[in-house]
Every structure is written in structure tokens, then in C-alpha cells.
Amino acid sequence: MMYTQKLMDHFMNPRNVGIIENPDGYAKVGSPSCGDMMEIFLMIKENVITDAKFRTFGCASAIASSSVTTEMVIGKTIKEALELTNKSIAENLDGLPASKLHCSVLAEEVINEAIEDYRFRK
Which of 35, 40, 60, 101 is surrounded by the fewest CB atoms within 10 Å? Predict the structure, then answer.
């Protein structure tokens, strides 16, 4: 299984790891089949994601997908963040092995659920 240099960088040096106390949006998703679990915390001001933190339990691809996803959504509007796809997440990592594409699907899912949580709380 070949991992790209960018994926390995995000795995070895993940960005935005941690939690946000009292986030505006929060979600936790997991895949029982592979054991990956992603948790994301969002801060949203005037419809723009101002901060995103994550905690992920899983393989290198799951951690890298979470890391790059937080980078991709910070500074984006809710609408722009909802346009994020698992394909764009994988492309941002210069590709994922076929057997690991579910990690980018989980990352897309966790962002959508955190935004749904934000909308529900408002």
C-alpha cells in the first residue's frame, strides 16, 4: 500500500488536533467495520468556520483525512464547507489507496454532521 508524501506529512504532523470547549458544531462518526472514529469541533462566526479541531482514532489515512479536512474548512462559509466531498479530501492528500477511500468518506460525513449540529443548536 503506497501512501503519498502529503498524506504521510498530515499523518506524522497532523494539523488542528484537539478539542474546542463549547463548540458551535460537533460530530462524531465511526466505521465499526474498520474501527476508525472521527470527532470534529467547529467554531462558526457569521456563517464562517473560524476554527476546527479534531480527534481521530484510526489508521494513517483516517488521521490524515481528518487533518486535511480541518485545513480545508477553516475560513470557509457553511455553504462552501458543505460542498466538500470525499473526492476533494482525497485529492488534497494527493490520493488515497483504494482500500482507504472510506476514510475520506468519514471525513466528509463528520463535517456535514457537525454543520447539521450547528444548525440544530441555532
Answer: 35
Q: Which residue has the cell 476546527?
A: 52
Domain count, the chain: 1
- 56 lies in which domain range? 5-121
Q: Compute the distance between CA of residue 64 and CA of residue 6 in angstroms, rounded to an integer.
A: 9
Query: What is the per-residue pLDDT across 80-122, written as a single tens digit (0 to 9) for each?
Result: 999 999 999 999 999 999 999 999 999 999 999 999 999 999 8
Does the active-site annotation cover 59?
no
75: amino acid identity, one letter: G
Say if residues 93 and 10 touch (Cβ distance below 8 Å).
yes
The whole model's pTM is what?
0.94
- 34, 37, 82, 105: the active-site residue: 34
Number of residues in the chain:
122
User: Burial, 49: exposed, middle or buried (Cβ in 10 Å; 0-12, 13-18, 19+)?
Assistant: buried
- For residue 62, the one-letter residue type is A
Residue 103 bears catalytic tag:
yes
Give burial (CB, 10 Å; 0-12/13-18/19+) of 20.
middle
